[in-house]
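PT: before anyone asks, these are the final sequences, not the draft ones from last week. 391 residues across everything. Please model them as a single complex and drop the result in this thread when it's through.
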Amino acid sequence: MSSTNVYIFDTTLRDGEQVPGCKLNTRQKLVIAEKLDDLGVDIIEAGFPVSSPGDFKSVEEISKIVKNATVCGLTRAVKNDIKVAAEALSNAKRPRIHTGIGTSDSHIKYKFKLTRDEIITRAYKAVSFAKSFVEDVEFYAEDAGRTENPYLAKVCEAAIKAGATVLNIPDTTGYCLPAEYGEKIKYLKENVKGIEKAVLSCHCHNDLGLATANSIEGVINGARQIECTINGIGERAGNTALEEVVMILKQHPYLNLDTNIKTQKLFGISQLVSEHMGIYTQPNKAIVGANAFAHSSGIHQDGVIKKRETYEIIDPKEVGVTQSAIVLTARSGRAALAYRAKKVGYELTKLQLDEVYTNFLRFADRKKEVKDRDIHEIIETSKVYQQIISA
Ligand code: KIV
Ligand code: ZN
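LR: through. Structure below.
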């Protein structure tokens, strides 16, 4: 991998699947895993094998079918979790165990009732044990977002000493501001002994709507892996959205960071995940929402019809959307009406358009959106209809 490459670690099937009521069965997980592999993600987190027999089976079956990506299984810093994960991953071409422990004071004090030093020992032992099964071991410092940087650096150092290949720095509660998260990554790059032996990874939650911004700030400051989910799904406000970080890196080449994602497949996989999980994607969702390439105000429509780039920074085809949509509403202008009328078969002169547009506005004021079939009705009931069809 080049130093400009950012690994995309997809956790749709693990963190993403933690959305209440959206559990997937093994067959559905296999369909999604195959598409993630086709999409070009570098790592697929397939599940948490010790959590249930179903999850174990999913990780086991996904390990058999994935051709290119690394397949990863989550564990706590618990021997049995790690043993079970290694077993579930035994058929993977490239297996990775993802183990870790909470490092913020509240996790240490209330969840584990341990001391800071005891947490470091547990982290070291978990990574060492995982290394006895697989070469590729990722360590997560849960709630790293609220962990003091000097202590976090010590935990990371212990994980590297034990052989961790990746250090995951989760903002588990979605608390950090972008500058703060970026600073954390920079601090670890500059202060952890042996950091050159491991890849730093961003794992950001979206509780304040900052997951994407934080992940981007993380890679600007030296992280080289982003953990994310399709459509940003995940418990509470979700995880970093894969399609967003990938397109940000693509649209801003001066950052000199890229990914292996085949972006033309983004819209398709977004729809697939949404259907299987039964989660409707908000229409204004960046990149993959139904309105992401739809224009409804007259000023914007006029601009896009003249030159797409006036109001679009991404060519929709680049993300697998066939074309931009010109949506007709009462806010649309003559240019949009002429454009859509032409698409359904009517070439209007300027005078005809004036007459049809008056009719259109009356109609549009009563409707949320004017569809193709409505355009026929609007034109057929206009005074100039005979003129239009005999032209
Ligand atoms: O958000 C988080 O801290 C996690 C870890 C288990 C990696 O999902
Ligand atoms: Zn998470």
